[in-house]
């Protein structure tokens, strides 16, 4: 079976409009102290509508609470709309303990590249870089400054170490120039896929490393999915994955252990070798080349491709 994740009951203590499309939510524990969150850590919040989503923990001026910032996603799975439209002060939600898949390594200097709501993990990372007394710079891109939560607060607090890049006029950030301007810095990037792709291309060309955090993969079945057979070759069983369930949930119910963490196609924990059957890859872990090789799949999000009725996996 998948790992049982301990959940903490939290009460919504405050909900604040940060921009027309971003709300801040402050969560307090119903049972005393909360575990600390490492810089860049996230919590997975489960809402009353059953949807779970991951949010970076934003530093809070008060101790003993967690704050998250939530962008209303027009094409999301309903989690952000629920938080914006229905979640109210006093409501109870459940959350996992903070987990860090995007840790701030020791480095001489940092360059943080944020796209839109991808700013959130950097808020705690900046505080940590300050604590370590390491130089850092933040480049924060978004449509316009007023749509970018925290832009003015960061600029007034940290001055020219924060540069704001507005894309409203169609100007894309020149990632190569930004990266070459900070030759000694360890590069961290979070934002939409298109932004991350641009940063990855630039860092690859410059033979530099980049630490990346994606928001989330294309999670959970949509309407109109197809059921498919999943043959667990080592276990010797074949399972039916219905249209409305994930392969990971079905395998889990069958009592076969697959380690998992994000369950959104972002961490790579549930990667499983594929022996045959074409896969519709929906994770953000594998590169395009790896997806084309079709030799493994993330069971939490990926499914049989259209026209494939049976997938055989090494499990
Ligand atoms: S559990 Fe994270 S990719 Fe599947």
Give a nutshell description of this structure:
The chain contains seven helices and 18 strands.
Describe the structure.
The protein is an alpha/beta fold and 315 residues long. It folds into 3 domains: 7-96, Elongation Factor Tu (Ef-tu), domain 3; 110-213, 3-Layer(aba) Sandwich (Rossmann fold); 228-313, Ubiquitin-like (UB roll) (Roll). Helix content is 19%, strand content 31%. It is built from 7 helices and 18 strands. A 6-stranded antiparallel sheet has the order 4-3-6-1-2-5. Strands 9-8-7-10-11 form a 5-stranded parallel sheet, sandwiched between helices. 39% of the residues are buried. The model has no long low-confidence stretch (mean pLDDT 88). The structure holds FE2/S2 (inorganic) cluster. The site of FE2/S2 (inorganic) cluster has 14 residues, from loops.
Order of helices and strands: EEEEEHEEHEHEHEHEEEHEEHEEE
Query: What is the 3D shape?
Result: globular
Q: What is the CATH architecture assignment of the largest domain? A: 3-Layer(aba) Sandwich
Assembly level: single chain
Report the uncertain regions.
Answer: none
Strand content range = 25-35%
Rg over CA atoms: 20 Å
Mean pLDDT: 88
The spatial strand order of the largest sheet comes to 4-3-6-1-2-5
C-alpha end-to-end distance: 13 Å
* Count of individual domains: 3
Structural class: alpha/beta
The largest β sheet comes out as:
6 strands, antiparallel
In total, how many beta strands? 18
Kindly identify the CATH topology of the largest domain: Rossmann fold
Helical fraction: 10-25%
Report the total helices: 7
What would CATH call the class of the largest domain? Answer: Alpha Beta
Bound molecules: FE2/S2 (inorganic) cluster
């Amino acid at each position: 079976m998948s790992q049982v994740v301990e959940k903490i009951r939290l009460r919504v203590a405050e909900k604040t409009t940060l921009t027309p499309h971003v709300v801040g939510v402050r969560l307090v524990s119903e049972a005393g102290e909360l575990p600390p969150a490492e810089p860049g850590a996230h919590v997975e919040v489960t809402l009353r509508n059953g949807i779970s989503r991951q949010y970076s923990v934003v530093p809070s001026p008060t101790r003993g609470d967690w704050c998250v910032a939530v962008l209303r996603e027009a094409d999301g799975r309903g989690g952000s709309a629920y938080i914006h439209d229905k979640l109210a002060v006093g409501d109870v939600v459940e959350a996992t303990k903070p987990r860090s898949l995007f840790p701030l390594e020791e480095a001489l200097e940092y360059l943080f590249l944020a796209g839109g709501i991808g700013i959130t993990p950097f808020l705690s990372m900046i505080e940590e870089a300050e604590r370590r007394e390491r130089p850092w710079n933040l480049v924060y891109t978004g449509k316009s400054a007023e749509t970018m939560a925290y832009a003015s607060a960061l600029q007034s607090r940290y001055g020219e170490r924060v540069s704001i890049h507005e894309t409203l006029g169609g100007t894309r950030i020149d990632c190569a120039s930004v990266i070459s301007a900070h030759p000694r810095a360890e590069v961290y990037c979070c934002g939409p896929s298109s932004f991350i792709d641009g940063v990855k291309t630039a860092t690859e060309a410059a033979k530099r490393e980049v630490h990346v955090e994606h928001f989330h993969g294309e999670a959970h079945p949509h309407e109109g999915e197809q059921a498919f057979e999943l043959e667990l070759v080592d276990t010797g069983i074949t399972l039916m994955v219905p249209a409305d369930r994930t392969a990971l949930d079905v395998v889990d119910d069958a009592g076969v252990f697959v380690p998992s963490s994000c369950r959104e196609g972002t961490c790579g924990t549930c990667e499983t070798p594929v022996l045959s059957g074409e896969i519709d890859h929906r994770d953000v872990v594998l590169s395009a080349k790896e997806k084309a090789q079709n030799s493994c799949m993330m069971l939490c999000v990926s499914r049989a491709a259209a026209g494939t009725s049976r997938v055989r996996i090494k499990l």
